[in-house]
Design brief:
Elements lengths: L14 H16 L3 E4 L3 E2 L5 E2 L10 E4 L5 E7 L7 H12 L4 E5 L5 H9 L9 H20 L1
Parallel strand pairs: 5-6
Antiparallel strand pairs: 1-4, 2-3, 4-5
Length: 147
């Protein structure tokens, strides 16, 4: 496949650029999925928030033909995954939903294409999700030690 992931001069990829590539170019434009994105917004006090009714709900809901659907949480190379996000992803998987955490630099185009173009998958753990869980766990342990 000729699609290439965009990168900044230092090799990093922002979450926005990754979403533009992964979701818009691949999922929507190349494979024709209908994609819903929950966007971050600013509160009156200036803080950023995402208007989910469920804490940590994935950023993208993607709907294909014949009932195929999946959810995706996207992250840039330096974006932090919050514990609530991992908890929500794991809860959705336990309920039987196909949910992915795609981090720029941890997933390649071929793997994304195999997920998008392939059949509905069982909601099993993937390597990226286990990697994110370990990363958050280390961060939480480190913050507990500092207290």
């Amino acid at each position: 496949m000729a699609l290439r992931l965009p990168a900044l001069p230092d090799g990093s990829v922002t979450e926005v650029e990754f979403e533009n590539f992964a979701i818009r170019a691949l999922v929507r434009d190349t494979f024709g999925y209908l994609c819903e994105h929950t966007r971050t917004g600013r509160q009156k006090g200036g803080a950023w928030t995402t208007p989910h009714t469920v804490a940590g709900f994935p950023d993208w809901a993607c709907y294909g033909s014949r009932g195929r659907h999946f959810l995706i949480e996207t992250k840039g190379t330096a974006t932090v995954t919050e514990p609530e996000q991992l908890a929500c992803i794991l809860d959705l998987r336990r309920r039987g939903h196909e949910v992915y955490l795609w981090r720029a630099g941890r997933i390649d185009v071929e793997e994304m294409v195999s997920i998008i173009a392939g059949p509905q998958r069982a909601p099993d753990d993937n390597a990226d999700l286990r990697w994110e869980m370990d990363r958050v766990e280390r961060r939480l342990k480190s913050s507990r030690r500092r207290r």
